[in-house]
Design a protein that fits this description.
Belongs to the CorA metal ion transporter (MIT) (TC 1.A.35) family. The protein is of the alpha+beta class. Helices cover about 55% and strands about 15% of the residues. The protein folds into 2 domains: about 250 residues, CorA soluble domain-like (Beta Polymerase, domain 2, 2-Layer Sandwich), CATH 3.30.460.20; about 60 residues, no CATH class.
């Protein structure tokens, strides 16, 4: 069931009226209408398309999923696609909810693919800035874009916190490398999904601010510029996070390689020390006469040689930091 609202001169005049009455409300030039659909059918959109004269390609895009964030221009209206994102710190995953919008001179029609997009929070944002409602569709579109971009900013910040924790854990001695690798790859995957929603918004908002589209008036232009600035900062932040997580990954592999080299160096050093008694006892184990053969002096001589050489190698390796 569609949700409707009509504004007259910046004040809510009516809510919950049928979609078929939209054209009646728009007969008054001082009225702006908002219509919201959640999981609409082709018949639902066909009705509003007839009311507002929406282009068939735009209606087709609204019915399909996984569109790229964009703002398409048609003769009588514009078509917007954007994504609300949420980062879940518990599992490091990013969830997205698509919203489409038909933007006409005196109507905004939002189309949500499911309940994942919290339209009530957008409505609350509209009601919290009622002093701007006289700007009509520009005011409604600003509230929608502002909520989406703020969500992007919060998701990027939460992901940044997770990557910083990963960066700190890299230098922990008790780190489990298997778990850390899975965690870093999961964050990298989440960052990729987040970038697909965040980066295009800069172009989308820039397109909406174009004077030839006549969507944004002079009153709302500073507010759209502020949203554009936030979108640009979120996009730049995601780029820096991409470089940071790559650096963390390279550092992790480098430290792991260094630790492996240290282990191999210590094992090799101990093997060299252990080789001394093996060599000495092997020499004295020859079945031939030698000084100290079958005598106590031979035992003490071989023992002294083993101890002196082993201790000597031990201190040499310690001095070179091989042990």
């Amino acid at each position: 069931m569609a949700r409707t609202r009509a504004y007259r001169n910046g004040t809510v005049e009516a809510e919950g009226f049928p979609v078929k009455d939209v054209s009646d409300w728009l007969g008054d030039p001082g009225v702006v209408v908002w219509v919201d659909f959640c999981r609409p059918t082709a018949a639902d959109l066909a009705e509003i398309a007839d009311e507002l004269g929406l282009h068939a390609l735009a209606v087709e895009d609204a019915l399909e999923e996984h569109q790229r964030p964009k703002l398409d221009r048609y003769e009588s209206h514009s078509f917007l696609t954007a994504y609300c994102v949420n980062f879940h710190a518990e599992d490091g995953e990013v969830s997205k909810a698509e919203v489409d919008a038909f933007v006409t001179p005196n109507a905004l029609v939002t189309v949500r693919k499911d309940e994942g997009f919290p339209i009530d929070e957008v409505v609350a944002r509209w009601d919290g800035a009622a002093d701007l409602a006289k700007s009509g569709v520009a005011y409604l579109l600003h509230g929608l874009l502002d909520y989406i971009v703020d969500g992007h900013f919060e998701a990027v910040q939460a992901l940044d916190d997770q990557i910083e924790r990963l960066e700190d854990d890299v230098f922990e001695e008790s780190t489990q490398y298997g778990a850390m690798q899975r965690r870093s790859l999961r964050l990298r995957k989440s960052l990729t999904a987040l970038r697909r929603a965040v980066l295009p918004m800069n172009e989308v908002i820039s397109a909406a601010m174009r004077h030839d589209l006549r969507i944004v008036d002079d009153v709302m232009m500073p507010y759209f510029q502020d949203v554009h600035d936030h979108a640009l900062r979120a996009a730049e932040w995601t780029d820096s996070l991409r470089e940071l997580i790559n650096t963390v990954r390279e550092t992790q592999l480098s430290l792991q390689g260094n630790r492996m080299n240290m282990i191999m160096k210590k094992v090799t050093s101990w093997a060299a020390i252990i080789a001394i008694p093996t060599a000495v006892t092997g020499f004295y184990g020859q079945n031939v006469p030698y000084p100290g053969f079958q005598a106590a002096s031979g035992f003490w001589t071989s023992t002294a040689v083993i101890v002196v050489l082993a201790v000597g190698l031990y201190f040499v390796f310690r001095k070179r930091d091989w042990l």
